[in-house]
Amino acid sequence: MTRLQKIVLIAMTLLLGGSEVRSALAQSLVVPSGFPAFDAGVGGDVAKAFSGTAKQWRQIAPSVHQLALQHADDLAAFDGDKRVEALVSLAEFIEAKRKAIGDTPVLAPGRTVIGLLDPDRGLGPREITAIADAYGCESVIYKKDDDAKTLETVAESFLTAVTAAVASGEPTSVIVLGHGLPTEIQSYHIRFERLAKALVDGVPSKTPVDLSHVVLVCDDCFSADFSINLLGGVSSDVKRRGLQLVSLPICIAGTNRDRVGFVDVSEKFVPHFWRDVIELYFIRRPWPKAVTLGNFFENVDNMMYGYGRAPIVQGGHVTGYRLIDAKLIQDPVVFVPLDEADLAKLRNILGLPPDAPLPRWLDIG
C-alpha cells in the first residue's frame, strides 16, 4: 500500500470509523470489484507469472478474482510483489484442483441420475434420460405434467429422492433444468435451505457428512448464486446438527454469479448450457466412456464462451476473443469441495492462522 493510500485510509477511518470502512477500502485498492479492472491491473501481473497457458489463465482468471475478493483484507497485508506472489499461488492452487478432480464422473455407468424439469415449457424427460441411458445411468425424472400433481407434490418427491440417494451412498448426479433465483429453484419454489436439508437428511444419524458422491447440475438463472447459497446452507445445517463435515457435494452451475441463463424457444424450451452438453456428448460421435467434471469445465465451458463473444483468429489459431454482447455471457462455473489439506494450503498462501475459518468449497471456473 502506498503512502498516499495509507493517508486516505487513515482519513476515512477517522471520519467514518470502523473495520467495515477499512475492509471496503482495502478491497477497492487491492482487488477491484469489477473483473475487467482486475484483469487489466493486478490480474495482468498474475497472468505473466502464472505457469499455465494463456487459455488456462482465461479459464480460471474470474475464479482467481472471486477468491481474491473473498480475501481482500488478507491480501492487503501483503506489500507489492508479495501480493502478486500470493495471487499467483492462488491461481496455481485452483489449476491444481482442476487437474486433480477433472476425471470425476458426472455421467457414467453405475451412476443414478435424478432430474427435475420445469413444468411450463417443452422440456421433456428425454432431455435427460436419452443422455443418461447413453452412458449407462439409471434415471428418474420429476416434472409436473398432469393435473393430478401440484408443484409442491413434485418438489417433495424430488427432495425425497435426493435424500434417498444420499442415504444409498451410490454415485448420483442431480440435474435441474428450468427457472431459478439466487435463493431457490424457482420452477418449484424449492429454497436452498430445503435442498440442503434434504441432502443432510440422507446421512445416517450422528455419522460424518460425506456428500462427495453427489454432483448437482443446475441450468437456470443465477445458478452459481444458488450453488453458493446451497453449499453454505449444507455447511450451516451440518454445524447446527453438531456433525462433522467430511465433504460437500460438487456443484456445476450453467450461469455464473449475477447472470441469467438463456434459452432457445421454438417448439421446445432448451437452455443453452444443457443444449451444449447434449451437442458435445450425445449428438457428436464417438462418445467418450464417461462425461467427467473436466469435460464440463473444459469443453462445455469453451463452447459456452462463444455466447456474447467472437473469436479472434490469427494464423489459423484462436488468439483471443472480442466482446459482442455482454448480456449474452453466462460463463458456467464449477464448485468443488475442499478437504483439510486443501484448507491448510489456502491458509498458508494467505498467511492465516492454522484455525482460521474458510469455506469448504472452491470455485474452479
Structural write-up:
With 365 residues, this protein is of the alpha/beta class. It has 14 helices and 17 strands. The strands form 6 sheets. Strands 3-2-4-8-10-16-17 form a 7-stranded mixed sheet, with helices on both faces. Strands 1-13 form a two-stranded antiparallel ribbon. A two-stranded antiparallel ribbon has the order 5-6. The longest helix has 22 residues, at 80-101.
In short:
The chain is an alpha/beta fold. Helices cover 48% and strands 19% of the residues. The protein starts with a helix and ends with a strand.
Write out key terms for the chains shown.
alpha/beta, seven-stranded mixed β-sheet, globular, two-stranded antiparallel ribbon, 14 helices, 365 residues
Strand fraction: 15-25%
The helical percent reads 40-55%
Mean pLDDT: 90
Structural class: alpha/beta
Taken from the alpha-carbon principal axes, the silhouette is globular
Largest β-sheet summary:
7 strands, mixed
Low-pLDDT segments: 1-16, 19-23
Query: Widest sheet: strand order?
Result: 3-2-4-8-10-16-17
Task: From the alpha carbons, calculate the radius of gyration and give it in angstroms.
Answer: 21 Å
| Strands, count | 17
Q: How far is the first residue's CA from the last residue's CA?
A: 29 Å
Query: Number of DSSP helices?
Result: 14
